[in-house]
């Protein structure tokens, strides 16, 4: 402390007159408007008026800046909608499934396949496995005796297939296409087939004329393919979903169905949505999926379920992405199904908000569709197709499905979530308020900081110099006086 005092004592300190002159000079020279009018005016009334004006302006500035900061930290957003017209537009992927999932002959020999598929399908759509199902006991016995049974191979071999007998016609933008242009994919409907799949070399298909696109004629062949009405599968036709080529198909809840004997005309639009990251929005740009090229909520949920199942059961359901040992039916029933219930009960795989397992994607492309139906075929076309396919007219009515998918117009809509207030806009707003009410700028703020720092520095020096010296071997003056009086009395 003495060294500090010695150092400070060598520096010349301003006298009270100098400090008063410093304050007066600052008031006259500062760029903070109004202050010099308080100092310079001789009239006390004018001084008072200017003091009120300056204090009122400062109060308004503080209130305005506070309200701007409060508004900024509520993270407000705006939504802009823009329509872009283009000469060519990317065609989406379309996944088709037969509403009757299994071949009749295989289902007749192996009737418990419906119950077994319900167990497997639970990984995509949580549902209760009903113990009162007629084949429940047979299925449990089968699980115990056929642990090496591969339901993957069974469904792939005995489910719906796509060849020249089930896909009678395929036309894309005036050019013929066929089963080779479709990629096989497993969904809750078993074997499904995707046109313009993301992993396909020909996936970069573009449409240059509206009103034309993909035209397909399916034969669902009700005699060859069947399903179990007891499980709710009572329709006949094709169910399909239109999605981005980079996105996994999600049939459940998003699928469009076309019954037999109908011509479904589907008109689509492309809508791109951009979400802001937290805290302005709910997306998280840092999340990357291991098994998909682009992020999607459905793909993320699948990976989340796969991770928990692999940790608990040591295997991986074939309907979920990833590399691992495929779960057999016994593990599906004894481990995978309870694990899925646990995931649902404890909310281990959630979606939507930024802190959930799977927040919304920062960018996504959707294809809203408008669908209309007409009876297919007409009386004249019925005779033509009956002769061409060598089938009865009744067979044509009960098995053929015509689907046509095209763009309504060559444009796409961008719905973009944007920050309502950026950092630069906040600074500009604050600077505008300072300039409007006080005529202040960044230079003014630096002047005030310098003034406050200088005065604080002088106060600290004066405070340190006034601290009395107290050393371990020295008594304070009053103690020395008391000791002297005590000696004199003795």
From TrEMBL:
Protein name, as recorded: Bile acid-sensitive ion channel
One CC-aspect GO term: apical plasma membrane
Biological role: Forms bile acid-gated sodium channels and may play a role in bile acid-dependent absorption and secretion by epithelial cells of the bile ducts. Displays high selectivity for sodium ions but can also permit the permeation of other cations. The gating could be indirect and the consequence of alterations of the membrane environment of the channel by bile acids. As a sodium channel of type II unipolar brush cells of the vestibulocerebellum, controlling the electrical activity of these cells, could play a role in motor coordination and balance. This is one of the three pore-forming subunits of the heterotrimeric epithelial sodium channel (ENaC), a critical regulator of sodium balance and fluid homeostasis. ENaC operates in epithelial tissues, where it mediates the electrodiffusion of sodium ions from extracellular fluid through the apical membrane of cells, with water following osmotically. It plays a key role in maintaining sodium homeostasis through electrogenic sodium reabsorption in the kidneys. Additionally, ENaC is essential for airway surface liquid homeostasis, which is crucial for proper mucus clearance.
PANTHER family in the cross-refs: ACID-SENSING ION CHANNEL 5, AMILORIDE-SENSITIVE SODIUM CHANNEL-RELATED
Catalytic activity as recorded in UniProt: K(+)(in) = K(+)(out); H(+)(in) = H(+)(out); Na(+)(in) = Na(+)(out); Li(+)(in) = Li(+)(out)
Family of the protein in this entry: Belongs to the amiloride-sensitive sodium channel (TC 1.A.6) family. ASIC5 subfamily.
Top-level division of the source organism's lineage: Eukaryota
Gene3D superfamilies recorded: Acid-sensing ion channels like domains (2.60.470.10), YojJ-like (1.10.287.770)
Subcellular location: Apical cell membrane
Quaternary structure and partners: Forms homotrimeric channels.
């Amino acid at each position: 402390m003495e060294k500090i005092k010695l150092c400070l004592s060598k520096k010349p300190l301003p006298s009270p007159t100098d400090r008063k002159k410093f304050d007066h000079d600052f008031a006259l020279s500062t760029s903070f408007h109004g202050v010099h009018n308080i100092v310079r005016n001789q009239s006390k009334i004018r001084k008072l008026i200017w003091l009120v004006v300056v204090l009122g302006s400062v109060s308004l500035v503080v209130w305005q800046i506070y309200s701007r900061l409060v508004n900024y930290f509520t993270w407000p957003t705006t939504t802009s909608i823009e329509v872009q017209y283009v000469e060519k537009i990317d065609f989406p992927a379309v996944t088709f499934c037969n509403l009757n999932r299994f071949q009749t002959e295989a289902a007749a020999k192996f009737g418990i396949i419906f119950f077994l598929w319900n167990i497997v399908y639970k990984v995509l759509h949580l549902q209760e496995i009903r113990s009162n199902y007629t084949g429940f006991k047979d299925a449990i016995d089968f699980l115990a005796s056929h642990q090496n049974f591969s339901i993957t191979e069974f469904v792939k071999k005995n489910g719906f297939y796509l060849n020249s007998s089930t896909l009678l016609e395929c036309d894309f933008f005036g050019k013929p296409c066929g089963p080779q242009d479709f990629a096989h994919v497993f969904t809750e409907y078993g074997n499904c087939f995707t046109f313009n799949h993301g992993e396909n070399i020909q996936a970069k298909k573009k449409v240059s004329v509206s009103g034309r696109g993909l035209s397909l004629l399916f034969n669902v062949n009700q005699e060859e393919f069947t399903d179990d009405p007891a499980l709710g599968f009572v329709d006949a036709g094709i169910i399909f979903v239109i999605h981005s080529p980079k996105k996994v198909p999600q049939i459940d809840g998003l699928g469009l169905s076309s019954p037999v004997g109908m011509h479904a005309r589907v008109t689509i639009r492309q809508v791109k949505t951009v979400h802001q990251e937290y805290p302005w929005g709910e997306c998280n740009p840092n999340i990357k999926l291991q098994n998909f090229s682009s992020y999607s909520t459905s793909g993320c949920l699948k990976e989340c379920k796969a991770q928990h199942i692999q940790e608990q059961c040591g295997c991986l359901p074939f309907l979920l992405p990833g590399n691992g040992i495929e779960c057999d039916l016994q593990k599906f029933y004894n481990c995978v199904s309870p694990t899925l219930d646990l995931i649902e009960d404890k909310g281990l795989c959630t979606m939507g908000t930024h802190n959930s397992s799977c927040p919304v994607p920062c960018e996504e492309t959707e294809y809203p569709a408008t669908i209309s139906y007409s009876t297919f075929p007409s009386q004249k076309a019925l005779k033509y197709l009956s002769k061409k396919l060598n089938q009865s007219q009744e067979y044509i009515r009960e098995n053929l499905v015509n689907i046509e998918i095209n763009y309504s117009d060559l444009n796409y809509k961008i719905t973009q979530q944007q920050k309502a207030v950026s950092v630069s806009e906040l600074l500009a707003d604050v600077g505008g308020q300072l300039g409007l009410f006080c005529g202040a700028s960044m230079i003014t703020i630096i002047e005030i900081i310098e003034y406050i720092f200088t005065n604080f520095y002088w106060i600290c020096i004066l405070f340190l110099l006034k601290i009395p010296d107290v050393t371990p071997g020295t008594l304070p003056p009053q103690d020395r006086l008391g000791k002297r009086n005590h000696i004199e009395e003795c």
